[in-house]
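Protocol step 4 of 6: structure prediction from sequence.
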Amino acid sequence: MEFSPNTLELLYIVILSVLLGIEVISNVPAILHTPLMSGANAIHGVVIIGAIIVMGHAKSDDYVALTLGFLAVLLGTLNVVGGFVVTNRMLEMFKKKK
């Protein structure tokens, strides 16, 4: 595996994105964490679409790509559903009890 300057630049971008994300999340008040995270989990629908596209372009004998694509679809779907479940439970807390 050879690192090109382009790959190194992409690695720098990922590292800076992680550090920026940690800084932004650490400054979010605790009361906003649940709605923020449940909304962010719904964005993982992009992961599902990307995994489906990658699986569609994979060769039928490339079992590694197909397995990783299937796992990405499965875990992305669980994340999206979990985000909506958390949001639903959070909204149920604000309903008036009988």
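Step 5 (inspection) to follow. The chain has one domain: 5-92.
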